[in-house]
Amino acid sequence: MLLIKNVKLVDALGERGPVDVLIGEGRILSLHGGKAETVMDGRGLYLAPGFVDLHAHLREPGQEVKEELSTGLLAAVRGGYTDIVSMPNTSPPVDTPEAVRALRKKAQALGLARLHPAAALTQAQEGKALTEAGLLKEAGASLLTDDGHTNEDAGILAAGLLQASPLGLPVAVHAEDASLRRGGVMNDGPLADLLGLPGNPPEAEVARIARDLEVLRYALRRSPKRPHLHIQHLSTKRGLELLREAKRAGLPVTAEATPHHLTLTEEALRSFDPLFKVAPPLRTPEDVEALIEGLLDGTLDAIATDHAPHTQAEKEMDLLRAPFGIPSLEVAFPLLYTELHLKQGFPLSRLVELFTDGPRKVLGLKPLHLEEGAEASLVLLDPKERPVNPKAFASKARFSPWTGWVLGGWPVLTLVEGRAVYQALA
Ligand code: DOR
Q1: Is residue 33 part of a domain?
Q2: What is the CB < 6 Å shell around ligand 1?
Q3: How many domains is the chain built from?
Q4: Ligand 1 mean position to 308 CA, how many Å?
Q5: Mean pLDDT over all residues of the chain?
Q6: What 3-state DSSP class applies to 74?
Q7: Averaged over 291-305, what is the pLDDT?
Q8: Which of 136, 221, 255, 399: CA 20 to 30 A from 213?
Q9: Would 322 be classed as within a structural domain?
């Protein structure tokens, strides 16, 4: 039994407390104290439901030089995550039930964050032939996606949605038109021209979102069960507007935004540093503002990391050759707690919802609130500020675009069903 005394509670329902939280048998037993072997002082700290990440590249199998389950899932619990969706753009891609089972088995043995592997929508993520959605679901796949690649063939995406809908599986898309994106390494516009760098235009994302929403309309019309399209790492104001309209029209679509698209802009590319090279690219302040508005008004459902580790050597190549991606599992919540909640007054309860019930809903998981009887998959957060130090990351990617940023809201204890999977040294 664990007793956390005098701790404030925050979940999608709001902020409450301070209370004394008694945890045992994997559940919250009481919010009014009780007897326990272990007693913690929760004064000044927040207790929240464990975070859920819809989008992490954990690189297993085949790219363990960048990350592996043991390091990625440790990074996850250090970031306050109890549940992680791993992306299938591995080597080989996760496109068979056997591969999904192998990942789940290995993750279970690690006993860190719970893994919900995503599986490829198409065989080898080549965009040509669909994978076996039914068997993948049976093996434990949480959603289907060719993320890391774009779905150029609208017919395949439609067939994928039709195949996945009776199974209740979401289909997640990396919405960029490859023919417009071409070799762009940063947001297309006056700054890219000034820097002489190839641009990836916002229209590449907007056009693809528009197309995918039409594909969804088609699937909705043809499918006996509602399909579910999920738009990954939405980054543009216009894309957000299309999504808002689609949701108003009742389309079954959800979407996520990433910590980097919410806290950085294309201005960072003035450094020519590949740390800031990501797909879709960092955009303009106007886009960032629109995304934050979208988080507030419910147009966006979740904040997902798109944790994308690469080796130091890869990220030290020149900007044109370095791979796309930013690792963020260990800083995502503190970043948004500080930059959105503390600095811009973004409501804490809504922020926590975007890390908890928002992504849970996308995955079809029940909401999790801090109530007696609730599953004790929880995170304890410390508002005390300290600078980001990527050298201390558990992730193999020990670099960060946020190095030195002074943040609060650090996870100090992560529990999965009452079991401590991470505890910071006091
Ligand atoms: O920045 C990115 N990194 N975007 C992607 O689509 C893929 C990802 C990766 O796998 O590194």
Answers
A1: no
A2: 57, 89, 148, 174, 278-279, 308, 323-325
A3: 1
A4: 6
A5: 98
A6: helix
A7: 98
A8: 136
A9: yes
Range of the domain at 129: 50-367
pLDDT of residue 50 exceeding 90: yes
The domain spanning residue 217 has which CATH number?
3.20.20.140
- Ligand 1: residue whose CA is nearest its atom 2: 325
Tell me if the pTM is above 0.70: yes
Q: How far is the CA of 324 from the centre of ligand 1 (A)?
A: 5
Identify which of 200, 306, 307 to mutate to test ligand 1's pocket (most ligand atoms within 8 A of the CB): 306
Structure tokens that stand for 395 in this block: 């992730």
Task: Please tell me the distance from the alpha carbon of residue 120 to that of residue 88, in angstroms, as a whole number.
Answer: 6
Which amino acid is present at 417? E
Q: Where are the alpha helices (DSSP H) in 223-355?
A: 237-248, 259-263, 285-297, 312-315, 332-336, 343-344, 348-355
Q: Is residue 376 part of a domain?
A: no
- Residues known to be catalytic: 306
At 115 the pLDDT is 98
59 CA to centre of ligand 1 in angstroms: 11
Which of the listed residues 89, 181, 396 should we mutate to test ligand 1's pocket, taking the one with most ligand atoms within 8 A of CB? 89
Q: Is residue 28 part of a domain?
A: no
Confidence of residue 426 (pLDDT cuts 50, 70, 90): low
- CA 181 to ligand 1 centroid distance, Å: 14
